[in-house]
Specification:
Layout: H1 20-34, E1 40-43, H2 57-71, E2 76-82, H3 88-96, E3 100-101, E4 114-120
Parallel strand pairs: 1-2
Antiparallel strand pairs: 2-4, 3-4
């Protein structure tokens, strides 16, 4: 590679979601989620690399977040995602885990590029 250029490769082993780097990433997501409310949480951003897709990584991350939300006695977890086809796998993931569409929340406004979703505490496989 040329001078001043670098390539950063991060690899997450599916069998070890408790590794330090994974735990740090989850901690950052959870801190964002709880920054604005003590009764409601928002999942601000959740992504996996193309090579991690279809391997259960996103499900593990989501369930960890929902387990933590349950431990904090949150009443509801919200998220906003895109309407484009690119976001279809994310919308399916959230629906499989009990999220349903809802009106805009927390200062968001209706936007044709956004889908708003919620999960009340009594629903979802990891958020009973």
């Amino acid at each position: 590679m040329g001078r001043g250029k670098f390539r950063l490769v991060i690899s997450i082993d599916r069998d070890d979601p408790a590794r330090g780097d994974v735990h740090q990433l989850l901690s950052e997501h959870l801190a964002d989620m709880y920054a604005t409310s003590t009764l409601h949480g928002e999942i601000k951003s959740m992504r996996t690399t193309a090579s991690a897709r279809g391997r259960g990584v996103a499900t593990l991350i989501l369930r960890h977040i929902l387990d933590d939300a349950r431990a904090r006695d949150l009443e509801r977890v919200y998220l906003e995602t895109g309407t484009e086809d690119y976001f279809a796998p994310a919308r399916r993931l959230y629906a499989r885990n009990g999220f349903t569409e809802c009106p805009p929340f927390a200062g968001y406004t209706l936007d044709p590029n956004s889908v708003f979703m919620e999960l009340p505490s009594e629903e979802g496989p990891a958020f009973p």
